[in-house]
Records
---
Amino acid sequence: MKKLGVAVIGTGFWGKNHARIYKELTNTNLVAICDADAERAKTIAAQFGVKAYTNSAQMLKNKEIEAVSVCTWSTMLAKEALKALHAEKHVLVEKPMATNTKQAEKILKTAQENGLHLTVGFLMRFIPGLQHIRDAVETKKIGELVSATAKRVSEWPERIGDVGVVKDTAIHDIDVMRYISNEDPISVYAKIGSMRHRKFEDYAQIMLTYESGKSAFIESNWLTPYKTRTLTVTGSDAITRLDYITQELWIESNKESIQPRYPFQEPLKLELQHFADCIAEKKKPLVTGVDGIKALQVAEAALRSSAKNVAVKLKQP
Ligand SMILES: NC(=O)c1ccc[n+]([C@@H]2O[C@H](COP(=O)([O-])OP(=O)(O)OC[C@H]3O[C@@H](n4cnc5c(N)ncnc54)[C@H](O)[C@@H]3O)[C@@H](O)[C@H]2O)c1
């Protein structure tokens, strides 16, 4: 089996996990890593026995590299993703994909024009419990979908200094809501503000409404002294709850309460395995560039809604 030659741009807290997993997977070959911080690049490259770069343009000249994970600061993702696509590499760009929708659209267009594979790091979709919920919604095992509530709160991860909680954190749940409902919201109303963070918002309550009458509520903040990441989905016949941290899933109805169990799996490993498989088999990814753009559009609408204190209508395709 030919291994896919891969590289990682940005090997901080998250990118070094990409590098580790590319080393672990049997069908990927980690060729090199790049980090703007020379010391970090050297340390991570030595840890995985690959070449270190501080300039991605240099690294991308290497023909052995076929695909790249872009895991830089959020404000650098678009620039680095575009560089990699122009160098004819397939790209997994971390969420939020770009700092704005316009940049994200440029990434998608460049990938399409060059016939390259593009996916976005919406990790939650790879958690088996979330896939179970999506299936339960689609097959109406919980009846008609009524509403969904997501909570993603913790202390401020201080390394994040270039985007606020909406584009960094709530964006996961914005994507989850699209994924489980298989529908785009028609309007968003949000209350967003900053209590401790000087530059960006650190709390957000976002309500999404859908043409079919269902609604979703997303609570995100960097103020809560402990970490919670949960999803509750209410159907007309049953309610499901998922704890993203433990991956525990509950389904409760009038008749029964069940707890389907899946062996704990590292979502990032599933995501990167899928990335490599999709490239090898020329398959459409579970998370497309369009998914990335749509999540950013909702995030931007939430920020506008809060700034103007009005519900913002979203354009349907
Ligand atoms: N999908 C997820 O669940 C998930 C989880 C954590 C982080 N992320 C995303 O991953 C990205 C990185 O987050 P982090 O927590 O690792 O941040 P971090 O600050 O720990 O790491 C970012 C690294 O990128 C490097 N860097 C910045 N610009 C660069 C450039 N142009 N070229 C090369 N290196 C560059 C920095 O030196 C740093 O080492 C963010 O976009 C974040 O949203 C996603």
Note: The chain has nine helices and 15 strands.
---
Amino acid sequence: MFQWFGKVNYSPFTKVGEFADHLKDGRLMGSRCKSCGTTSFPPRADCEQCMSGDFEFHEISGKAVLHTFTKIVAAPTGFEDATPYIVGVVDLEEGGRALAWFGDSINEDEITIGMPLQLVPRIFDEVEEIKVYYSLDKPGTTWSKV
Ligand SMILES: [Zn+2]
């Protein structure tokens, strides 16, 4: 039952449900408030700055800088087989933050706070309610639907 624990599950039935459709097309979308211009990732239907509900989607590059990271040795239920693994929090170039696993393109001894990274969506179940996780890989890493 904890198979999907920790993975992001987007319901297609919310105001930001279109996010899932864009992800299926391989596009990473943030939201931009039409009132004050604040950008957010993950997309928010209601602005964190001015509370306006008037937003639009805008594509983001996924270019990011490492804010912090940690190595998980004692994993939560369902992730025992993956240990040890490293997760990081990145500041996205267009605004917003994301939590993601480090991908295979980066060795542990290369990881330093402030390093440039690419946030890569990894979709592994194409159903209406998609399952996605993100990896952090070298700048310039591209992706397409898995
Ligand atoms: Zn706003």
Note: The pocket of zinc ion is lined by residues 33, 35-36, 38, 47, 49-50, 52 (CB under 6 Å).
---
Amino acid sequence: MDIVLSLKDTEWLATQYPGLKIDMTNKCIVGDIFLNRSYNRKTLTNVFSIKIMLEILPNMVLPKVYETSDKLQNIATKLDLSSIEDIHVNSDTSLCLAIYGREKECFSNKFTIREFFENCLEPYLFWVNYYEKFGKAPWKEYAHGGLGFLEMYAENRLTFREIQQKMSLKEISKYLYHYDYVKDKCLCGKNKDMKKCHNDIYNGLKKFKGNWNLARVS
Ligand SMILES: [Zn+2]
């Protein structure tokens, strides 16, 4: 589905982001974003070169966005991260802008370019900027996919029923096996005890196992 920009959208973009251009030939918005944003009384400013595709692919909520300089790669290198995925860049080099399954929360109703910038793209860029500057995330983030659901479950953001709907039995069984039998390696792949490495995932699995056993008995 193509993203259609209204005259109002176009004017808003030109005012808010004068460094960006709409390229109708290649169906994208491309150029520089001058970020100036605050969170918890910290203001960060920076420039990011980006390309936003004006198309939402089937089964997706958000358009693909790419960073077009080497800035993100340089940040990953500078912070000595094992992978650029640690700053939420997907394997196809597009940015991972929102938690899987929660992308719709960026919008009050349906997709709008303004809410996309304000609730999705800018928070992502702020996050990366903050991470680069302070070496840690500015706010709590969740792991990708099922592991993230387990973290939310540990925090009571998902119910036992919801987690069973979101994850296949195969996936949850795999994690439970790991929880029971693989003690010296975390599910994230690091050679560390899961309890110390990803404590919320550990707690989510512990809680799931408890409720699972209860559900079987009753
Ligand atoms: Zn871990």
Note: The pocket of zinc ion is lined by residues 186, 188, 190, 197-198 (CB under 6 Å).
